[in-house]
Amino acid sequence: MTVPDDASPPARDLTVPVGPALDVAGCEREFRRNGLPLLVEGHSLDRDVFGRSAPFLLVVLLAELTGAVRSGWPAWANVLALLGGAGIVAAAYAGLNVLRGRRWSTLPQSVGLPELAFFVLVPALLPLVFGGQWADALLTVVGNLVLLGAVRVVVGYGILSSLWWGLARVVDELGASLLRLVRLLPLLLVFSLVLFYNAEVWQVFDRTHGVADVVLGAFFALLVVVFVALRVPGEAREALAATATALPEHERATRFTRPQRANLAAMIATSQLLQVLVVSLGMGLFFMALGTLTVTPEVMALWDVDGGTWERTISLAGGGVVGGADLVVTQTLLRVSVAIATFTGLYYAISVQVDAVYREEFVDGIQAQLADVVRTRSRYLDLLAQPG
User: Is residue 373 a contact partner of residue 31, using CB atoms and an 8 Å limit?
Assistant: First the structure.
């Protein structure tokens, strides 16, 4: 018997049933564990998004009671202000219940528009009542609105569940990322090493302010997200179509609505961004170690680089000297390493988007996961259709 030259492990048979029989609640837990909460029938914002986030929102609300505190007041006055702020919040909530025809002490059964408006507006009253701080009040309103938007995206699209699923497979993802990195290694190393051993790059990051570093990092992170987001809708449609072809008996379960397809795309994007993060962190640590060993204080002096506002000396073998020179970690080394890691992450994100081998491997993995979800959803829909 002959073996093909390019023999590879056979693809997983998507038609093989997996997993035990689940009830409705078990199926819904599986959807959430896979980062697809929108597959739950009757999914709603007040119950499944903001309702599930209510403990977190309550903690934030309690933390915002500090809006009544003023740095120039004595301790006893701030204590009274905190108590007064808590009283204002409690009275406002009791009034909200009365206006809605409920008993004043009724706890929220769901978190709808009235509760969200309460969360956004009532904490902003505290800076106004205790000190007339209009700017702080406006900042509180804007901050709460941004926080609710983040909760809507993170919880509504199961981002945390997707990250948990990805972290549970971090060893596999790391191995796959390193294998893909090896294929890209020649060009990637040339690209990175040329930048790393460039005196002008060190001089730039030696003289930039912290705010510029944050803005630059956020800009490149945004570019990575954009490059990934451009491809994931097509990948979601491709995975659904392939799963429907492989599982014709579950074709009904592959009919995703537009929000459900967006949820699937968000799950795929989260998995890809996790891989980019793994590669970027690995490259950042590599260049930190490389710079510590090779970019000595003497080299930085030749490059006219001060090293930033802090530095740490590493002592090895108790002598503090390696080859006649101390190993020094500086702020500039950290900045350059983070910058190179960010550039590398962007390069990796772009490269894998056009790498045919990577696309095939990644889509196969998504299809295997999606096949399990589709079988679970098929049973879920059957259970919901049963009378009683």
Answer: yes
